[in-house]
Amino acid sequence: MAVREVLNRVGDKWSVLVVALLGGGKKRFSELRRTIEGISQRMLTLTLKGLERDGLITRTVYPTIPPRVEYELTRLGRSLLVPITQLGDWAAQNRERIQAARDRYDAQNSKNR
Questions:
Q1: Which helix (H) or strand (E) holds 66?
Q2: Helices in the chain by DSSP H: which ranges?
Q3: Are the C-beta atoms of 81 and 73 separated by less than 8 Å?
Q4: Of 58, 66, 76, 95, which one has the greatest count of Cβ atoms within 10 A?
Q5: What is the dihedral of CA 79, 89, 27, 4, to 10 degrees?
């Protein structure tokens, strides 16, 4: 497996959000769906399957009616919380500077059109 494949998984916006949310503990599918604004049921399903396949989360099915399914981070998934948290902190600290740079760029490039 190429490093690029790993980075594609952990760099995907939905994967990052799911891992961050599961950092707070086990969650059911419906909890994740309600919490992640803009994600479709299909995209959440695909994201969860990919994370499970990569060993970052586990899926536990409880034999109730209807079946209850919970997701949680594995040890490997929990280790991913460190860089995700650092990246989130960096984004929060620099969002105003990035917005100012975008505004300058847009103002400069709107004159050149």
A1: none
A2: 3-11, 13-22, 29-35, 41-53, 75-111
A3: yes
A4: 58
A5: -50
